[in-house]
Design goal:
It contains 8 helices and 5 strands. It has about 180 residues and is an alpha/beta fold. The protein is globular.
Length: about 180
């Protein structure tokens, strides 16, 4: 099985991937790690500050083929990152889609507005990030957009509302 963990920055994709790795022993691929390795080796002309759309256009074809290879080899993998495009399923035949589970982590507007100190506090829980001010307006816009896209497309998502809490039953329901 391949699990795709999507969502906006700071929604906990990497932390959840780490939890799944520890629980199920599924390796995970951080698309951010792939991005930085390709940028540092100059295999792509983009920069870390390039737009998400430009980075997705460069990174998704590589990630897509990694996913196909895992499925063909009957291997498990968790892929996490903001560069998983809506419409990802259009890049796979039914054979591959059967083995992919998609989950989008989304903050509610209330959570973004009331839990900014927690969002900042947990930003470095797994990966070291440069400290920067949260773009609250950007987060509100992106999370609202992600929720609309998930609902329109029938994707599974986890809405983090009053408290950030994900238990095993919630995860299992999303993966079934």
């Amino acid at each position: 099985m391949v699990i795709l963990l999507a969502g906006d920055s700071h929604t906990g994709k990497t932390n959840l991937a780490q939890r799944l790795l520890e629980r199920w022993h599924y390796p995970y691929l951080s698309i951010d790690h792939l991005k930085m390795s390709l940028i540092r080796t100059r295999l792509i002309r983009l920069q870390a500050e390039s737009s998400d759309a430009a980075l997705t256009a460069e990174l998704w074809p590589v990630v897509r083929e990694i996913i196909k290879t895992c499925i063909e080899n009957e291997q498990n993998l968790i892929v996490e990152g903001v560069y998983i495009p809506f419409g990802w399923e259009l890049d796979f035949s039914a054979y591959y889609r059967r083995s992919v589970r998609y989950i989008c982590l989304i903050f509610s507007e209330e959570y973004i507005l009331t839990a900014q100190s927690d969002i900042k506090k947990y930003a470095n829980i797994i990966e070291a990030r440069q400290q920067q001010e949260l773009d609250v307006a950007g987060m509100l816009k992106t999370n609202r957009y992600n929720l609309e896209q998930c609902r329109q497309r029938g994707y599974k998502y986890l809405l983090i509302d009053k408290h950030y809490y994900i238990d095993d039953k919630m995860l299992q329901d999303l993966l079934d």
